[in-house]
Design goal:
14% strand; alpha/beta; 10 helices; 8-stranded parallel sheet; TIM Barrel; 43% helix; globular
Length: 268
């Protein structure tokens, strides 16, 4: 599992407060704590902060003062991402593109440049109509994204597809989360080298004891091919479920990674 640490995101109350008060020590401490927990990318998102571009630049400087962990530059504004990519000391993750507007048209040519060939990209399965309601519509968006990636020569291994994890509701038709899981299965079968990602905690919004919903979802998602996730890396129980699920489906020979993580204290 590729772990993208989610804690430096202005949509979270503690991080929002730190951004508003320009509390650099909080940003640095949270960056170090996530890296110590073992992550692959550290998400950097100013969310709705005033002067988003300047705020993201400020956050990147603080993060890189304490770690060289690759940064996931996270913004709905492609221009913010484009202008902050050169500030990153090593290739990171563009978070994100989609079929909304001209996002792909602007970003994919930049990612195709030789100097950016090691950058990875998160692609959301939505378009100008919003989040597709059906499996078929999401697959249509997926195929459009992959066609553009092939057009620009972007290796599938650089792409993280977010099929868009939505809030779990008890629907009368009993669909539950089968839409998202079916899309994941299709991605795994059709584009086997693409990473399947997403914000795991989205599933539990407004539900009690969110950690249980998150843990159940991540185990199901891993069984359907999910191998990248935006999560709280400080949640030891969730990390344990991820490693246990991977061992269950044969991705961890002799449970070596599970045992090693336990000995390192990565989960309780």
């Amino acid at each position: 599992m590729i772990i993208i640490g989610e804690k430096l995101n202005g949509s979270l109350s503690a991080c929002k407060k730190a951004i508003e008060e320009r509390d650099g020590e909080y940003i640095k401490d949270m960056a170090k704590r996530q890296v110590d927990a073992g992550i692959d990318f550290i998400d950097c998102c100013a969310s709705s902060a005033d002067n988003e571009l300047d705020t993201v630049k400020w956050m990147i400087d603080l993060i890189q003062s304490v770690t060289d962990c690759p940064i996931s530059v996270d913004s709905p504004d492609i221009s913010v991402i484009i202008n902050t990519m050169p500030l990153c000391g090593k290739p990171g993750l563009v978070n994100s593109v989609s079929c909304e507007g001209d996002k792909i048209d602007l970003m994919f040519p930049i990612l195709a440049k030789s100097e950016n060939s090691k950058w990875q990209v998160m692609a959301l399965l939505c378009d100008d109509k919003g989040i597709p309601k059906t499996v078929e519509h999401r697959i249509e968006v997926l195929d459009k994204i992959m066609a553009q990636a092939d057009k620009h020569g972007i290796n599938h291994k650089r792409i993280h597809i977010d099929p868009l994890v939505e809030v779990l509701y008890m629907k009368e038709d009993g669909e539950g989360i089968f839409t998202i899981l079916d899309v994941m299965k299709h991605i795994k079968k059709t584009y086997p080298n693409v990473h399947i990602s997403g914000g795991a905690s989205n599933i539990s919004y407004n539900l009690p004891v969110r950690r249980l919903i998150n843990q159940a979802f991540i185990a199901l998602a891993i069984s359907c091919g999910m191998d990248s996730a935006v999560i709280d890396p400080l949640n030891g129980d969730l990390r344990g479920v991820i490693l246990a699920a991977e061992a269950m489906i044969g991705l961890d020979d002799f449970c070596a990674e599970y045992i090693s993580a336990y000995r390192q204290g990565l989960f309780s």
